[in-house]
Amino acid sequence: MIKINKLEIENVKRVKAVKIEPTTSGLTIVGGRNRQGKTSVLDSIAWALGGNKYRPSQAEREGSVVPPYLHITLSNGLIVERKGKNSDLKVIDPNGQKGGQQLLDSFVEELAINLPKFLNATSKEKANILLQIIGVGQQLHELEVKEQEIYSRRHAIGQIADQKAKFAKEQPYFPDAPKEPISASELINQQQEILARNGENQRKRQQLAQIQAEYASQGQEIERLRSLLAQAEAKYAQLGADLEIAQKDAIDLIDESTAELESNIRQIDEINRKVRANLDKDKAETDAGDYRQQYDSLTTEINAVRQQKTDLLTNADLPLPGLSVENGELLYNGQRWDNMSGADQLKVAAAIVRKLKPDCGFILLDKLEQMDMDSLKEFGEWLEQEGLQAIATRVSTGEECSIIIEDGYVAGQEGIQIQQPPGEIDPGEGWSAPASAPTWKAGEF
């Protein structure tokens, strides 16, 4: 990974002249009070490495007669320099060959010099950045669309099932009602059939009475007409036989009651209302069961899709253990962005920046004063463990600061001069500073 070994800045924004040699790994905290030039250091690095789109709107220090000067030595041997009236860029590789912004862009990650762009992004934008760099963004999007579509279907099915179950529960049930609605015409036909059979019975009774009368009359006729006895006895015998048959038929006759049918006819509307209510209840219960089965089936599909998402992220090459994406939001150790500690937020951001361009081994961080000492220590230890370099600012003059900026200088380097003032002659390689002139040695502040 490429890191910043040394940097020299002069006359940029609030910086007068600063030489810094950041630690190779971990935190290099640029401390100081407000308006002393801390942020100007980070802006200078961003301008030097990121190009003119990061050039400050008022780059030249107010009151300076010497143009801005930027000189950065990178760990891969590249020297990046901006100087002169137009602050032209010059990039020299270890072999002495010149390069340009395109060479810097090949390994300098934009978010490394503009981390607020990531920190201020929405949760979904952060998640999308992560998903794209690990190569599963499109697949996860397709699975989430599929999950949402199944979820919507299941939700609609669940609502219908609940409505059907509620309707079935509210319906009255009549266990004594028949299974099918009753037809009035059918009941009337049954009544007519019974009345017809009863009429036949009445006809037979009347026939019996008639025969009985004739029999009696004929007996009298026998008494009266002895002379016709033979004829009368023959007829009487025949009538006796008929009488015996008629009596046998009459003994077994039983009249059927039409009371139930008459009652059913009178109550047909109420009976049919109960039948329909029972049918509605049965159908609603059946429908509710069917929809509940569909709901359970869709739940199984949703769980399968969610498992595919879990497997996709589990098998992905994530930049930090504990990172994941759920419902389009970035999670770290199960916490959403706004629930993460400041140290965890910076860990996630730094890990993602490193994953975007693995060759970029540094990040710039502004305004770390919101982090307490424990969080600073934790974050610094993580950076060292990961071999990452972070140059950060903090409104503080405490021991946690690697250097202190005071009035545009590093404390202890006050009055140093990096470029030659206009009109002065470069004394050449053999020149040495007077004993009274401030001196600077890499790594000592």
Describe this structure in words.
The protein is an alpha+beta fold. Among the domains are: 4-108 and 357-410, Rossmann fold (3-Layer(aba) Sandwich), CATH 3.40.50.300; 146-289. 49% of the residues lie in helices and 15% in strands. The protein contains twelve helices and 14 strands. It has helices at 38-50, 101-105, 110-113, 116-119, 123-133, 137-170, 184-224, 229-251, 259-266, 268-314, 342-356, 373-386, and strands spanning 4-12, 15-20, 26-32, 69-74, 79-83, 88-92, 98-99, 323-326, 329-332, 335-336, 362-365, 389-395, 403-406, 409-410. Strands 2-1-4-5-6-7 form a six-stranded antiparallel sheet. A five-stranded mixed sheet has the order 11-12-3-13-14, with helices on both faces. Strand 6 and strand 7 (98-99) form a beta hairpin. Helix 7 runs antiparallel to helix 8 (229-251), helix 7 (184-224) runs antiparallel to helix 9 (259-266) and helix 11 (342-356) packs parallel to helix 12 (373-386). The longest helix is centred in the middle third of the chain and has 47 residues, at 268-314.
Offer a few descriptive terms.
P-loop_NTPase; 445 residues; 14 strands; Rad50/SbcC_AAA; rod-shaped; Rossmann fold; AAA family ATPase; coiled coil
